[in-house]
Amino acid sequence: MLVELRIRDYAVVDDLTLYLGSGLNVLTGETGAGKSIIVGALSLLLGERASSDVVRTGASRASVEAVFDLDGTPALREQVEELGFRLDDGLLILRREVAAAGRNRAWVGGSPATAAVVGQLGSALVDLHGQHEHQTLLRARDQRGILDAYGGSLELAEDVARSYRHLQGLREELEVREERRREVESRADFLRFQLSEIDDARLEPGEDELLEAETGRHEHAEELAQGAESLHQRLYEGEGSITDRLAEARRLLSRLADFDASLRSEVSRVDEAFHLASDAGRALGDYASTVDFDPARLEDVRSRLDRIFRLKRKYGPALEDVLQTAQRVRAELDDHEEADHDLGRIRTEIEAAELTLSQQAGALSEARDAAAVELSEAVSAALPDLGLAGGVFEVRLAPSETVSVSGAESVEFVVAPNSGFAPMPLARIASGGELSRIMLALKSILASVDRVPVLVFDEIDSGVGGVVATSVAAKLSDVALRHQVFVVTHLPQVASRADAHLLVEKGGVAEITTTLVRRLSDDDRVHEIARMLGGDPESAASREHARELLSIGSAPRIGDRA
């Protein structure tokens, strides 16, 4: 619900705040007082382009701000949150500012936003009818949604949309896999050659390091054997070897330790050195006896290292990289071999998804066909009472060649306001008054399924009077049972039905004209409606007629609020 509308320095408006209530809010006043200016200011919050021309003379900027209470509208609350904005105690504030210098700004709550985002939220909250290009029912997408809501097939439409997106996802997956398969196929022979070259080498992790060490031993076998034997002699076997000297030192130190017990620890250390030298000497002797220079083995090792080097140069730089390349190529070839199976599975899933989508779209088409006939008849029947005698409303369904996310047909609302004329799209209705009354007829039929909480009607009484005016007033009053309605009118029949009656007046300071708005009390309403009736608002007859209209307007309505 629109709780407040604040307008500052917009056209002839200085500083104005409108407090609105639930039900039917009526705006009346003399011609030229600024009623349509207020509606124009509101349209800025619905995405209308802003021009610096709207800035009040002498002001630097114009601003329009609306406060909405979103309690009871969970879908709209969710939409606000999805856009990343927060509500303050259930209230949403939309604001746009137009600078005289040409720079425009917008806010959602206290957060800066684009005019497009403000317009997106505003259009979800307010449907403005009259000479305004952003009316919800003029958009094909919204017409389709309205028809599905009227026919009770919104869930079926959502099923179709989900199935379509699922099918598109499968088709995209098939395309990606087929492209990958073609890419692998084009280089499969090369991949097989790579894998064969690496696998045939039978590589082992760390093998190159072991072979390089073995190469060193073979290339220096003679030096290794002689050196080990020399060390064997010096440490263990030769005359005057280190072990002989350590044995002599151990005997001498043991004797000294008999005289001084503090030397016993040194005896242990010398003893340990003796055993270490003995072990090393024997081991080097054994090693020297096993060193064998094998030219054939050296050649084999060098050949093996050369093969590994060539593989590392192609797939390395390290041996581990070569092995990982083999794993990657093998996996790629395995995927290629399994591709036919996967492609077959995906094609089977696509066939099943196409069948499901076709069945769901068929059911949706049947529901839309029935709802289109019903809605066309209901709205057409309501047009004569609204001054459109001979008017015909029609919901046209045009089958599509293929099923899309929205179903198997396009939906378009067309109307012939007068007999003898071919029906045309709603957006091509030239008269703002006719369009507003057609919208009112639609809203009266769709009141229970229309999701936009606030309806604004401008120019709805253009060319209307008498019985038609009474019918228009009744329809507005009925629609206001399910929506908050804000209407600009010259019709006393409409004004008499108001739950809140706002009067627009001209004022001024220092010869500068400005627009003022005040909410009328019961006595003030009598005076205003008497004026609207065309008589002397102070005459007893005019005031009595006004009271009579007010009594009719305040009578209980079918389905009235508790």
Overall description:
The chain has 562 residues and is an alpha/beta fold. It has 2 domains: 2-132 and 423-553, P-loop containing nucleotide triphosphate hydrolases (Rossmann fold); 160-371, no CATH class. Helices cover 54% and strands 19% of the residues. It has helices spanning 35-44, 74-82, 115-125, 140-150, 154-186, 188-200, 207-219, 221-237, 242-259, 264-290, 295-315, 319-382, 432-446, 466-479, 492-495, 522-532, 540-553; strands at residues 2-10, 13-19, 24-29, 61-69, 91-99, 104-108, 111-113, 126-129, 392-404, 407-416, 424-425, 454-457, 484-488, 500-509, 512-519. The strands form 3 sheets. Strands 2-1-4-5-6-7 form a 6-stranded antiparallel beta sheet, covered by helices on one side. Helix 6 (188-200) runs antiparallel to helix 12 (319-382) and helix 8 (221-237) packs antiparallel against helix 10 (264-290). The two termini are 18 Å apart.
Features:
562 residues; Rossmann fold; alpha/beta; six-stranded mixed sheet; 15 strands; elongated; six-stranded antiparallel sheet
User: Distance between the terminal alpha carbons, to the nearest Å?
Assistant: 18 Å
CATH class of the largest domain: Alpha Beta
Mean pLDDT: 86
Identify the quaternary structure here: single chain
- Give the second-level CATH assignment, the architecture of the largest domain: 3-Layer(aba) Sandwich
Number of domains: 2
Major sheet size, sense and barrel closure? 6 strands, antiparallel
DSSP helix fraction: 40-55%
Report low-confidence residues grouped into runs of 5 or more: none
What is the CA-based Rg, rounded? 47 Å
> Strand order within the widest sheet?
2-1-4-5-6-7
**How many runs of DSSP E, i.e. beta strands?**
15
CATH homologous superfamily identity of the largest domain: P-loop containing nucleotide triphosphate hydrolases
**What is the approximate shape?**
elongated
Strand content: 15-25%
| CATH topology description of the largest domain | Rossmann fold
Annotation field: number of helices = 17
Helix-strand category: alpha/beta
